[in-house]
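Case study 2.
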Amino acid sequence: MRPDKRRRPILLALVLAFAATGAVLGAVSLTRPTADIPAIAKGQPAPEIVGTTLDGASFDLAALRGRPVIVNFWGPTCVPCRSEFPLFKAKLTQHAGDGLVVVGILMADPPDLARTFIADEGATWATVADPAGAIKGAYRVAARPQSYFIDRAGILRSIQIGEVRDEDFERQFGLISGAS
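Prediction:
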């Protein structure tokens, strides 16, 4: 009977290891591209975004053709996301003559929390709700914040994973601000 008691911790460790391996493999399979969602790539048309903004308005990215667009996946509980808001607000003012548009895609946070944060920050750009994660999936978003720089013709020119800083912004804005 002695040997069985010594085997229990080993068996328990093996069961936990198999469970952890299964969880990791399951998580990885969820992040892999699927056959029904086309790959996203720089130099290709940006995936469509059709949905409803947090204030209840209809939104269609295609309606913004002819203008440089930044699509920003964010959420108010994401600290780097919160840090980007003053920059985006300033850049919208600075590049107003260029027709710059910022579009937020709410990711992984409740709409009411986002509405409060947007109001407190005085943000004026649309934020589209993505409750099912379809937009996130189409854009292959890895983490928040993640920003996509789309030119006037609707072509994706740059992807930034992580917080956009001033120097990042200006370099990438240069890729999308020219004539289509």
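The first strand starts at residue 50 and ends at 52.
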